[in-house]
Amino acid sequence: MPDRSATQGFDPSGIDEEAWTELERQLEATIPVYDKVNKIMTLGFDKGMRKHVRSHAKPGMKVLEVGCGPGSFAVDLEDVDLTCLDPSAEMLKVCKKRVNKARKSRGEKPAAYVEAIAEEIPLPSDTFDRVFCLFSFRDFKDKKQGLTEIFRVLKPGGQLVICDAGKANWLHGLVGRLYMGTFVQWVARIVTRNPNHPWKWLARTYTHYGTHSYYKNVMKEIGYNDVKARLLFPGMSSRFKARKPE
Ligand SMILES: C[S@@+](CC[C@H](N)C(=O)[O-])C[C@H]1O[C@@H](n2cnc3c(N)ncnc32)[C@H](O)[C@@H]1O
Questions:
Q1: Residue located nearest, by CA, to atom 15 of ligand 1
Q2: Which residues are within 8 A (CB) of 141 and not within 5 positions of it... i.e. 6 or more apart?
């Protein structure tokens, strides 16, 4: 167990149970204004980032979204056999209502919903063509264990695509911390009208988040191949891609 006593429970490898439990509480508090704050703080670029990640899914594929939250990404995933996973019952409730409504309007069958953490996925091995993590990887308690479980449930040849707040390297991380610590905080404070808004905790997870090379190395250790990472325009978000070998 890493000693994270000097960093209130956070480091690039994961988050202590107590800090994670509070983080979950804070994440649930974002639900009513989640999409609105995301849109403003990314200057509307969140739409394009989600579209880019979505383009990795092809019609008919079996797709898992890990950390689906209130369904902001899953709602627009069309023509796939979809499973949404999240540890928060509150998030799943909102996601289910929203995603099933959109799927029904497109003539698709409802998605499956699983209340669980990435580190312990209660689903069979070799099941999914794609696993997506949109703005949830940063919140995993144990990043390596979560990536290992995702590797297990991917089909051979299947692909993981992660999109999260960008931290290409140490220097880019400094710029990111400035953006998270000022602009994002102002936006959240104005929208929520609450000086103790939950985005304070989201900035904390970014501070202790690892760089591209840190997580690429973890993925390679687990056995993923074709591991890539890059910033998505305009540099606020990172996209990782990795495959389970055939
Ligand atoms: C910021 S929301 C992301 C929502 C959505 N995916 C999106 O596209 O905006 C992060 C989500 O990750 C979930 N989460 C936190 N820890 C997790 C874990 N260990 N495993 C899976 N999901 C987790 C949270 O409950 C929350 O719903």
A1: 139
A2: 14, 15, 16, 17, 20, 117, 119
Can you tell me the distance from the alpha carbon of 108 to that of 105, in angstroms, rounded to the nearest whole number? 8
Q: How far is the CA of 104 from the centre of ligand 1 (A)?
A: 24
- Residues facing residue 228 across a β-bridge: 241
| Distance between CA atoms of residues 96 and 98, nearest Å | 6
Query: pTM (2 decimals)?
Result: 0.97
Convert the pLDDT of each residue in 125-165 to its tens digit: 999 999 999 999 999 999 999 999 999 999 999 999 999 99
What distance in angstroms lies between residue 69's CA and the mean position of ligand 1's atoms?
Answer: 5
> Would the CB of 141 count as within 6 Å of ligand 1?
yes
Ligand 1 proximity of 134 Cβ (cutoff 6 Å): yes
What fold, for 5-243? Rossmann fold (3.40.50)
Q: Where are the domains of the chain?
A: 5-243
